[in-house]
From TrEMBL:
GO biological process, one term: positive regulation of autophagy
Domain GATOR1 complex protein NPRL3 C-terminal HTH positions: 433-493
GO CC annotation: GATOR1 complex
PANTHER family hit by this protein: CGTHBA PROTEIN -14 GENE PROTEIN (PTHR13153), GATOR COMPLEX PROTEIN NPRL3 (PTHR13153:SF5)
Protein name (Swiss-Prot/TrEMBL): GATOR1 complex protein NPRL3 C-terminal HTH domain-containing protein
Pfam families, alphabetized: HTH_NPRL3 (PF24064), NPR3 (PF03666)
Similarity remark: Belongs to the NPR3 family.
Length: 499
């Protein structure tokens, strides 16, 4: 996904057959006179000139890099032949432009987990968004002349504000006895005023504003262009989540309120999607949701993957008393941070730091919850879900390793105590023959029993590649059966807890 905060703004350039190339709209305005980004330092005339490419370069992605500023745009050439219903079209070209801060990408490249192809994917994501938005605007221009009408209004607003500034400037010059020639020089006007007036009168300006904020704040946005064309835009990578990795013991964790997600759905959204959003509960896994909703499991997985793609949900293990959680290293633990203040507003009786202290990654949540009253348990679960939504905590899983004693010696009678000091044990090697010989020796030494038979059946998973819940699902065994095996053969098993 493209990094949030990397887009400095959105701009809209037009080529009018009467007024020539113009920057019709640029959003947002600079934060202050002392914090003017490179996006705003470029004059309107220069932006208009740079982003009016030749027609041969239109109807495709158009990129331009100036220092640490990368512009990703999608210019569209319009046939200006007279329309039977709309008359003569004045707009011959328009260009939807996103300005990206390359310094944000350079900073991320210092992260060891950064992959160089991520930068290319982020640029491609903005190019895709620009193309979708431009094509929607072209559709509305061909249908009702939307772009021509909106551009006419935006340019009129700009000219009117500029004229008012000239008159005001001239009056000041007259009062001070200045040179009359200076009154007709180019006069700068407040960009925020221009934006405010444009937002009050232009549908196009409001659509561009909604797109900018949606992409910057959530990475996705749903807009209705000209109150007619429903458009869903996202910066999320469609390949970043593999649907085949979803398991029945997983569940859907929505990252925002149900109502907000439901309101953002298009009118023709799948009824099953609405049903899943309404029925979702982090305490119930997909298998339970299947029984409750009647939606087939594979369809549930597809719907869940769809919500993950749009950045409004994550796939997690269903919250149970057996889960182990730990505070993430990236969590913002500052007492006066925005998340901490939000937590305090939502859970007035608790402090974020005190609650996070209960997630040390050492014990199941049941250990702490058993000390709470029934009312406090419910509050604790709500806080746990909130912390998962805001990525404060992550789940740890328990992995199992078969430990082969040196020289293949078996612990005497497989006692539950540790092997003798001389029988130092090492993790099971990758050589399958050594493990096979050891298992054969173990079979000869052990009496046949249901526990040993289950141990043999589960032994292929004792290489630290599958956590306990995954093993239970794959082999259809209960937690009690698995624990019986682990307790019986704990002298030749080792355990690791990690994500």
């Amino acid at each position: 996904m493209a990094a949030l905060g990397s887009c400095l703004g959105v701009a809209f350039v037009v080529d009018d057959i009467h007024k020539g190339c113009n920057l019709a709209f640029r959003y947002p305005a600079p934060q202050s006179d002392s914090h003017i980004s490179a996006f705003h330092r470029l004059s309107s005339a220069l932006v208009a000139k740079l982003f009016r490419p030749k027609n041969a370069l239109c109807n495709q992605t158009f990129e331009l890099v100036i220092d640490d500023l990368r512009f990703v745009s999608h210019p569209v050439a319009i046939n200006v032949q007279p329309s039977a219903t709309q008359g003569h079209r004045e707009t011959s070209m328009f260009n939807v432009i996103f300005a990206l801060d390359e310094t944000k990408f350079h900073m991320e490249m210092m992260d060891p987990s950064y992959v160089r192809r991520d930068h290319k994917k982020r640029v491609e994501a903005y190019a895709q968004v620009a193309a979708q938005l431009a094509n929607a605007l072209l559709h509305e221009e061909n249908r009702v002349g939307f772009v021509t009408k909106e551009v006419r209004e935006l340019l009129h607003i700009r000219d009117e504000i500029a004229q008012n500034e000239r008159v005001h400037h001239q009056n000041n010059m007259d009062e001070s006895g200045g040179n009359a020639q200076e009154a007709y020089t180019e006069v700068d006007f407040d960009l925020q005023t221009l934006i405010d007036v444009a937002l009050g009168k232009s549908v196009l300006a409001n659509d561009l504003k909604a797109v900018y904020h949606g992409l910057e704040e959530d990475g996705s946005v749903h807009v209705v262009v000209n109150r007619w064309v429903q458009l869903s835009l996202t910066l999320h990578d469609s390949n970043r989540f593999d649907m085949t990795s979803i398991r029945p013991y997983h569940t859907l964790l929505l990252l925002t309120d149900n109502d907000k997600i439901l309101d953002a759905l298009p009118a023709d959204a799948s009824p099953h999607l609405r049903l899943l959003i309404e029925a979702h509960n982090p305490l119930r896994d997909f298998h339970e949701l299947m029984v409750e909703t009647g939606i087939p499991l594979k369809q549930l997985f597809r719907l869940a993957a769809h919500l993950v793609y749009w950045g409004v949900a994550r796939i997690v293990d269903a919250v149970t008393m057996h889960n182990i959680y730990q505070v993430r290293p990236t969590a913002n633990l500052h007492a006066h941070s925005a998340p901490a203040l939000e937590f305090r507003r939502k859970f007035t009786s608790f402090e974020l730091g005190e609650v996070l202290a209960t997630f040390m990654g050492k014990h199941r949540i049941s250990v702490y919850m058993n000390t709470l009253s029934q009312h406090r348990k419910l509050e604790y679960i709500h806080m746990l879900i909130w912390l998962l939504q805001h990525d404060f905590i992550g789940q740890l899983h328990r992995y199992i390793y078969l430990m082969i004693p040196q020289e293949g010696k078996l612990p005497a009678s497989l006692r539950l105590s540790s092997p003798a000091p001389g029988d130092a044990i090492t993790p099971s090697p990758s050589e399958p023959s050594l493990e096979k010989d050891y298992m054969a020796q173990l079979a000869r030494m052990s009496s046949s029993s249901p526990v040993f038979d289950l141990f043999q059946r589960l032994s292929p998973y004792f290489h630290g590649q599958h956590h306990m819940v995954e093993i239970m699902w794959r082999e259809n065994v209960t937690r009690a059966e698995l624990r019986m095996v682990l307790s019986t053969y704990q002298s030749i098993l080792a355990f690791a807890v990690h994500e």
